[in-house]
Design brief:
two-stranded parallel ribbon, 3 domains, mainly alpha, about 375 residues
Length: about 375
């Protein structure tokens, strides 16, 4: 190869600006092959298009005001992560909120029972102090699946009255799991009418429902604790106004305490603790929303080209749909335009750097 093994040497290590149409040597119409520092015909033509006193000037290095305070990016991670965790928790609660067969919301807690504890569970549900599996759509779905198994093929109306447990048990295990999961994630709480130590170890309650309530409920609590901890970790008394600091403390504390109550209530089947914890976590999420908006505001130092601004404003006055801010990047001559003054180099770049202005948006 004429220019050696470095595929980009002839393109001044800038293949976006210069090309080699043959793939073997530099293109003299785009770049000086003899002296890589000498202007190419294209650059020479651009230089000649400038006034004589602005040709071949050395580029000026951009400098922001040295007195500008150091600022963090406009979207700090901790506040955003905390708000995102809170919104995720709220979304999960909404999606898995337990409903009845008609789609109506069920008011908790979800009451578990085994054997002799059935009648007390029904009594609590009848008194409006919770709901049982009988009040959920999962109960009807399980009955429908079991009815299909009881049908005798080829004999209309005939059913099997005594199905083996190994056929029906998986059905009730699956739908009991779904009903318990919805209650745990939905934040309504799960409780049991069985006295401590009286839950049969082989029952669906012991094998499926209680573990499901504990792990899903504790998981939701841990999610909210994590979100609250992130919010508390984002407190910066030197930067944040007093009202934002107070809001962060309130939001983070509510989520941490609420999540802790959810974990406790889920593990001990104390429905009241779960409901209180879910409400507190919800308060923390609501307070976190305006904090996220505040933290996402533009701030710090920005550089802009007043010539591009004036040009965009004039185009707008002429009836074009142009935004002066967006034109800094997307308009003709903007940062994304390959033919902008910076990419042209030389005097055009120097002129661009001289007119560049810095604006402080606040901390």
């Amino acid at each position: 190869m004429v220019d050696g093994t470095n595929l980009y040497a002839y393109a001044r290590d800038n293949p976006l600006m210069y090309v080699d149409s043959t793939g073997t040597q530099c293109d003299s119409t785009m770049q000086s092959c003899v002296d890589p520092t000498a202007p190419a015909p294209r650059e020479e033509a651009l230089q000649q298009s400038l006034p004589e006193d602005e040709r071949y000037l050395p580029p000026v290095q951009p400098t922001a005001p040295l007195s500008a305070p150091r600022t963090e990016p406009g979207l700090p991670g901790r506040e955003s992560a905390s708000g995102g965790v809170g919104l995720t928790s709220l979304g999960l609660r909404t999606y898995f909120a337990p409903v009845g067969p008609g789609g109506e919301l069920l008011e908790g807690p979800f009451i578990l029972w085994s054997r002799e504890a059935l009648d007390p569970a029904r009594a609590l549900a009848a008194a409006g102090k919770g709901y049982t599996i009988f009040d959920t759509p999962q109960f009807g779905q399980a009955l429908a699946e079991e009815a299909v198994l009881r049908q005798i093929p080829g004999v209309p109306g005939a059913v099997i009255t005594d199905l083996p447990e190994e056929l029906t048990l998986p059905i009730w295990e699956r739908y009991s799991y779904i009903a318990t999961r919805n209650a745990a994630i939905g934040g309504v709480g799960v409780t049991t009418t069985n006295a401590p130590g009286t839950v049969p170890p082989e029952s669906i309650q012991a094998r499926i429902e209680i573990p499901t309530a504990r792990w899903y409920g504790a998981g939701m609590g841990a999610l909210n604790v994590g979100g609250g901890a992130l919010m508390l970790a984002s407190i910066n008394t030197e930067r944040d106004p007093g009202v934002i600091t107070a809001a962060k403390i309130t939001s983070g504390s509510a989520s941490v305490v609420g999540g802790g109550l959810e974990i406790y209530g889920a593990w001990t089947l104390t429905a009241g603790a779960v409901e209180t914890g879910a409400a507190l976590s919800g308060v923390g999420t609501v307070i976190a929303a305006p904090i996220m908006v505040y933290e996402m505001r533009p701030r710090g130092w920005i550089a802009y080209d007043p010539e591009l601004v004036d040009r965009a404003i004039q185009r707008y006055r002429n009836g074009e749909n142009v935004n002066a801010f967006c034109a800094q990047c997307h308009g003709p001559g903007g940062a994304l335009d390959p033919n902008n003054d910076w990419n042209a180099g030389g005097a055009r770049r120097a002129a661009f750097m001289r007119r560049l202005q810095w604006k402080y948006l606040g901390d």
